[in-house]
Amino acid sequence: MSYQTIVGLEIHVELSTKTKAFCSCANEFGGEPNTRVCPTCLGLPGGLPVLNKNVVNYSVMAGLALNCHIAKKSKFDRKNYFYPDLTKGFQITQDDMAICSEGYLEIEGEEGLKKVGIFKVQMEEDTGKSLHTEDNETLMDYNRCGVPLIEIVSKPDMNSGKEARLFLEKLKSTLKYIGVSDVKMEEGSLRCDVNVNVIDKTTNKKTQVTEVKNINSFRGAEKAIDFEVNRHIELLKNGEDEVKTTRRWDDVNNQTVLMREKYTVADYRFAPEGDLLEVVLTDEWINDIKDKLPELPEEKKKRFIKDYKLPEYDAEVLTSSQQLADYYEEVAKRFDDTAMISNWIMTEILRRVENVEESFDLPFTPEDLVELLQTIKDGKINNNAGKKVLREMFETGKKPMAIIEEQGLIQISDTSEIETIVETILSENAQSIEDYKAGKDRAFGFLVGQVMKASRGKANPQVVNELLKKKLNS
């Protein structure tokens, strides 16, 4: 039997505006519970919403970055449902007239480049937060209520958990680049629900869509989808079916758990939000936002390949973070060996940086790295000494030349000095000379190692190799 997986995503992204969506309360993570609230975000009588203009600006920026059509006229709606963290008994959102629609993002899918459609991007407000205690009490923190969100609804164009993860990674990188959100999953700035069902391609029978919530990582999203795909295939094999359900992801047991039957549109009783006017955008407004939009990751990657002659993989890694890309370009302005810069950043620097997506704050400047690379390229120190210097730069923040001078790492390039060491090593290793002449390549490597050891790693390796070959072949 052959099966096709169908995956759609609903992603909620908190916007990084200074204040909330419809009031002047601070939009900041954390704080003492219930201290960043007012009558408006608490839904108290008389508290009327006033739209934050930057919520509109940031939503349009996101829509443009996601190749969406920007609606010149959109409206807000009330989504009615009961939950303790919903202060007003309804959520201000957008239903049938969202601000952005019909966009897409491209990912490297299972069979090459794939365009994943985006149904809409809508503005809405966040809810409060339930805190569960060990005494089986539930406490409410409403600091988060009214925080501005965009909900990004993809089309069901993904066919595996891996494709969904790639889409989420690309989306996160894009939104971080344009600065509309910090997209920190651990702080709830980016949250994802997945919708999954499976089609039996032989009979065309399909399972009902399952929505999975409570996913706190991209890898978790991939695992939740894979788990559901296997569960749905078993339903098809057994001739079973179920109603549309909402399940939650149990990250400890790596499985989904039934929560309830899935809500339908009718359950939410959508109605226009009477306290807010329609949002009307002009061409001038949209074009002004478009002109200020920064270079996007995909565009930057293509430019890195073209301008710096980098392989696609290197360009992909170096443009994965705005800060990392900026650092590379600052070094490249001062040092013309772009391949060498890429090699040192990717191999020696990134392995010492815990999370390049969140922070690329190094204890030394681009100018310091240029100084180190130039010293290596000029032959004043060798690669191994350079790695030692870089490690010290990370640990102490000292300048590279200061470390080189302190530790006496200047490379010996004087041919006569190295020749003396080579002759001494050859006189002490007659057997290795015989082995080399007998065609044993390891013998040459051994002799090089002995010369480097005798010079305490300071001898220029190129000169060492040349002199050894010359003397061994004479």
TrEMBL record:
Keyword ATP-binding recorded: yes
BP GO terms, sorted: glutaminyl-tRNAGln biosynthesis via transamidation; translation
InterPro entries listed in its UniProt record: Asn/Gln-tRNA_amidoTrfase_suB/E, Asn/Gln-tRNA_Trfase_suB/E_cat, Asn/Gln_amidotransferase, Asn/Gln_tRNA_amidoTrase-B-like, GatB, GatB_C_1, GatB_Yqey_C_2, Gln-tRNA_amidoTrfase_suB_CS
Superkingdom as given in the UniProt entry: Bacteria
PROSITE patterns on file: GATB
All residue ranges annotated as the Asn/Gln amidotransferase domain in the record: 326-472
Family: Belongs to the GatB/GatE family. GatB subfamily.
Annotated protein name in UniProt: Aspartyl/glutamyl-tRNA(Asn/Gln) amidotransferase subunit B
Species of provenance: Anaerosphaera aminiphila DSM 21120
